[in-house]
Amino acid sequence: MSDKTFRLDVVAPDAALYSGEATFVSAQTTVGQIGILANHEPMLGELAPGGAVVLTEAGGARKALAVQGGFLSVSATTVTVLAESAQFSTDIDVAAERAALESATEGSEAFLTAKSRIRAVEAVS
């Protein structure tokens, strides 16, 4: 993995969740999984409902966020995640989310939210 860094900002309508230097970002988009390293080609991608964003900080720490839709914007030096809603994996009760997943109708908003939260926790476990 590269040790070159880029600026990463993760924001949702209700909060700025992360702002700092990262060496890698992985996200689920509507067309598949994407990995971003420093100097990535500029692009704009739509984040998938029920997805997760995983980041590796400059110091090597990994963090994950459950993300419910939005966009991923990549420029020459910055990656911005504009999420409809997002939550850090450390704030998620996995047992409650597994129960919610079991009781929700597949494809429903509740199902996708629970799936996203479980993915985020599993990504850094």
Automatic annotation (TrEMBL):
Its keywords, alphabetically, are: ATP synthesis, Cell membrane, CF(1), Hydrogen ion transport, Ion transport, Membrane, Transport
| Membrane topology annotation | Peripheral membrane protein
Q: Boundaries of each ATP synthase F1 complex delta/epsilon subunit N-terminal domain copy? A: 6-86
> Cross-referenced Pfam families, in alphabetical order?
ATP-synt_DE_N
Signal peptide positions (record):
none
Location (main, coarse)? membrane
Write one Gene Ontology MF term. ATP binding
Entries under InterPro entries matching the protein: ATP_synth_F1_dsu/esu (IPR001469), ATP_synth_F1_dsu/esu_N (IPR020546), ATPsynth_dsu/esu_N (IPR036771)
- Localization per record: Cell membrane
Gene3D superfamilies per the UniProt record, alphabetical: F0F1 ATP synthase delta/epsilon subunit, N-terminal
Q: Does the keyword Transport apply?
A: yes
Q: Which domain of life is it from?
A: Bacteria
As for family, the record states: Belongs to the ATPase epsilon chain family.
Q: Which NCBIfam families match?
A: ATP_synt_epsi, PRK13442.1
Q: What is this protein's function?
A: Produces ATP from ADP in the presence of a proton gradient across the membrane.
Description of how the protein assembles with itself and partners = F-type ATPases have 2 components, CF(1) - the catalytic core - and CF(0) - the membrane proton channel. CF(1) has five subunits: alpha(3), beta(3), gamma(1), delta(1), epsilon(1). CF(0) has three main subunits: a, b and c.
Q: What is this protein called?
A: ATP synthase epsilon chain
Which gene is transcribed and translated to give this protein? atpC
